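Moderator note: this is an archived Q&A kept for reference. The question asked for a predicted structure of one protein chain; the sequence and the answer are reproduced below.
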Amino acid sequence: MGGMRQAHHPRPDEIGLIDVLGALNDPIRVGLVRVLADGRERGWGELRAPVAKSTLSHHLRVLRDAGVTRTRQEGTRCFVELRRDDLDARFPGLLDAVLGAARGDDVGGHVGLNGG
């Protein structure tokens, strides 16, 4: 990776409930989790949100730092995926409850995929 700094991801046992809930207290971040809930890894450029790229980057960093997502860098491109297995193991049912409530209330529905 030629000098590029790898992002820190908390180990599964380091993922804290307050950190996860704090990361999910924003509609943009809930929307990003909804998009990533299909289990596919997405390039940052595929994600569409009504915010500046720098703000989107901030939201993705908050999710990663809380252990909600995993980020992978490949050259100049960054990819992100939901850490569903880790979250389900640590807090059974939490993610499904959040996703169900978000769909029901349409929280984060304005976040999606480019071209989709």
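Archived answer notes: The radius of gyration is 14 Å.
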